[in-house]
Design brief:
Helices cover about 30% and strands about 25% of the residues. A hairpin with a 6-residue loop joins strand 16 and strand 17 (about 325-330). The chain has ten helices and 18 strands. Helix 1 (about 10-20) runs parallel beside helix 7, helix 3 crosses helix 10 and helix 4 (about 70-80) packs across helix 7 (about 145-160). The radius of gyration is 21 Å and the shape is globular.
Length: about 375
Amino acid sequence: MKDFLIIGGGVIGMMTAWQLAEAGHAVTLLERGQCGREASWAGGGIVSPLYPWRYSAPISRLSRWSEGRYPHLAARLAEETGIDPEFRQKGLFYLDLDDAADAMAWAQRQGKPLARVDDYFLYAREPHLADGLDGALWMPTLGSIRNPRLGQALRARLTTLPGVSLHEGCRVERLVVERGRVAGVDTDAGRVLADRLIVCGGAWTGRLLETLGLSLPVRPVKGQMMVFRTPVATGSRQLLERVVLADGRYLIPRADGRVLIGSTLEEADFDKTTTEQARASLYASAVAMLPALADCQVEHHWAGLRPGAPKGLPFIGEVPHVEGLFVNAGHYRNGLVLAPAATRLLVDQLLGREPILDPSPFLPRSAPGTSDAAVDVPSREVAFA
């Protein structure tokens, strides 16, 4: 039996395991596939909500705490593992915003650098953008991270920690509760015992909790993306150096010159099939922002499943009615953005420490009218709102 059992080897699960292990605890992590290969791999890696002023205050607080940790986090992982997550802090241009006044008011309240810039400023920094832009909103502090490499680095770090037992290709079939307390999980390889169980299953979290008759409103939301391989432009600069966002679509440059375009939002259950319709739409959006991409190769087109939750608020905390059962899921499009804060907030609760911020907005709660009796019968329904 281990001190902690974590289900899910995405960035959330791996960061949680890392913190618990460094605090001196034994941790077992179970991943149905390969660590870091689901939503953590499929996203773009922008270290900010796309339109942060459109989110609630609790999300802003989580995001603000996380953003300030990423430079050190990336540097530490690069030093300790030899895998560079490529954190880049070159800023973001917002094009054609219809709520620019709201954005500026949010930035003033948050003390966040955000400025209106003219076309000269814009094209001086990104000369290959489409003609005819009359300026943009400029957020100079925005960063991005190469999320597949972040996942690789986190996995490599976990393998060096003696307190961590990592099991990939291990499918959890159901959660096990005895007399109202978590006892472990049944997997395709047998039962794994646990005193405390943390479900970080991303879009699959709701399904896992259903094995106890619990209902958590976390659903899969499909997103498709593509990446272009681009040549080095004149003067050894890249075709695109900074993140650009327009009409809900974004371009993200990588250090090697590749440019990502994302993303679609689709209600397709657990289907991760790519479609020609999405490919055409993404391609059109990319070329509209950066016309030179029409001469570049589309290197890869993929789909992932985001864990959607009501109002975009993740569930972080102990599940009612089941002692020792915790969840950290429902981060929607902001899993990478919020991961440092979301995992620290849960670890603070697990270890009885003063939390980094108020956890109450994120706690799973029983819906009105449900019983407060402990859950020890698989058929029992408990809803969370």
